From TrEMBL:
Keywords, ordered alphabetically: Acyltransferase, Nucleus, Transferase
Family affiliation: Belongs to the HAT1 family.
Protein name as it appears in the record: Histone acetyltransferase type B catalytic subunit
SUPFAM superfamilies documented for this protein: Acyl-CoA N-acyltransferases (Nat) (SSF55729)
Domain (Histone acetyltransferase type B catalytic subunit C-terminal): residue spans on this chain: 269-320
Residue segments, region Interaction with histone H4 N-terminus: 208-210
Active site feature: 259
Annotated positions for site Interaction with histone H4 N-terminus: 182
Reaction catalysis annotation: L-lysyl-[protein] + acetyl-CoA = N(6)-acetyl-L-lysyl-[protein] + CoA + H(+)
Length: 403
């Protein structure tokens, strides 16, 4: 029997228009299932609730590899201008603005697209492959590819792929893929079905190559998404490490940065950079108590294209790992070292206050003094320190279990 996987996105809104849920799950078409995922729920912001429908359901089905799309809007009833004197929200129009043309609304057409999935092959060149062991379903193989916008069919595939940003990242926007400074990295799951090898889309990353005077580039990670059914399995770290290693091999690359990184991205980057740096001689355990050194900055920059700010975080994480925090002297030295860095912005505040004292009228000065009260600064500094250390401990735990 023919069977396949597909990504299903359902937006269901309760009749009282209050609690909409967005579900994405990867499952098989028809009845046969090798690997099912639990549904992931993400609530939609209040102002995105559609007005004027009863039993509204937005159905988006994507074939797992090529992301061919079925789009349908269903509802039991809707308000009409003639009887209710109000217009319902144009839900279909809004979604059509996001999904590219070429989708189908016909289930039979979609079924025939599913049958073509066996013809789908990952775009671009293979950078890295790895396996993940899943307790219930066994071993899975994944491939990371680097694709060019000029690969036949990739432009259209990317248009479908980037629609997921709109469903899962609040501040997402589309990129101008025609700009040849974009690099695209994709992860695929390779699986066998009825003797055939098929591929499912797992996630992707876009990177923009900024120019650095006089002859370097600075790749900047712009978008990164691992589809919800695959999150928390280590794919994000695999992708980031593969991309990092790729740019490290290019002499023209100065260093690698990220645009407006989310908290989760920073966690991922800390883990990957610590993993990469932990074997560098300048980060050796006996060097760590001597402080953050110029050698560390140089080696991280030259060998791994890591900038000074990120190298400093790596140093603090590795030093925490090497510090016996039950030893009062060691713990104190570590605390002072981290607080010294955290204190930077507060010190700037002090300098600004000194300048202000010279030029502000007394009543203006008092209003600014409130923001810079020393006691509050100390409390804030201590809280920042505790938060930083807690985050570092999670990275150290992950290095111990998954690196
Ligand atoms: C942020 C994001 C890219 C991370 O991808 P991911 O594949 O989930 O990342 P990983 O699986 O490598 O790591 C995530 C967690 O899973 C854990 N994990 C990793 N491998 C694991 C494994 N084999 N088994 C169990 N847990 C594992 C990690 O320890 C980590 O836990 P932590 O968050 O407590 O540190 C992904 O969540 C995402 O796409 N989010 C939405 C968009 C976004 O925020 N993008 C980033 C900025 S644009």
């Amino acid at each position: 029997m023919f069977c396949n996987r597909l990504l299903i996105l359902l937006l269901s809104q309760k009749d009282d228009n209050t609690v909409p849920y967005l579900y994405l799950f990867l499952g098989p078409c028809f009845s046969y299932c090798t690997r099912c995922y639990t549904m992931q729920g993400a609530s939609i912001k209040q102002h995105e609730i559609a007005f004027g429908y009863k039993g509204l359901q937005i159905q988006l089905f994507y074939t797992a590899g090529n992301l061919s799309t079925l789009f349908k809007v269903k509802y039991s009833s809707k308000v009409t201008e003639a009887f209710d004197c109000v217009e319902p929200d144009d839900v279909e129009g809004k979604i059509r603005e996001i999904i590219p043309s070429g989708f189908t609304s016909n289930a039979d057409d979609f079924t025939s697209l599913l049958e073509k999935e066996a013809n789908f092959k990952p775009f671009g060149t293979l950078l890295h492959s790895y396996t993940v062991h899943n307790e219930e379903a066994g071993e899975f193989t994944y491939q990371i590819h680097k694709a060019e916008i000029t690969c036949p069919g990739f432009r259209e595939y990317h248009e479908r792929l980037q629609t997921f940003l709109m469903w899962f990242i609040e501040t997402a926007s589309f990129i101008d893929a025609d700009d040849d400074r974009w690099d695209f990295f994709l992860i695929f799951e390779k699986y066998n079905k009825d003797g055939e090898t098929l591929y499912a889309t797992v996630g992707y990353m876009t990177v923009y190559n900024y120019y650095v005077y006089p002859d370097k580039t600075r790749p900047r990670v712009s978008q990164m998404l691992i589809l919800p059914p695959f999150q928390g399995e280590g794919h994000g770290a695999q992708l980031l490490e593969a991309v990092h290693r790729f740019y490290c091999s290019l002499p023209k690359v100065q260093d690698i940065t990220a645009e407006d990184p989310s908290e989760n991205y920073v966690k991922l980057r800390d883990f990957v950079l610590v993993k990469l740096c932990q074997n560098l001689p300048s980060f050796a355990e006996d060097k760590l108590p001597q402080g953050f050194s110029a050698d560390m900055v140089q080696e991280a920059q030259d060998k791994l294209k890591i900038n000074k700010k990120h190298a400093r975080r790596v140093y603090e994480i590795l030093r925490l790992r090497a510090t016996d925090m039950s030893d009062e002297k060691q713990a104190r030295e570590y605390r002072l070292e981290v607080k010294k860095r955290l204190f930077g912005p507060y010190r700037k505040n002090q300098r600004e206050l000194a300048k202000m004292k010279k030029c502000l009228r007394p009543e203006e000065l008092v209003s600014h003094m409130g923001q810079m009260d020393t006691q509050t600064q100390h409390e804030e500094l201590e809280k920042s320190y505790q938060d930083v250390v807690e985050g570092y401990r999670r990275i150290i735990e992950r290095i111990a279990t998954h690196a």
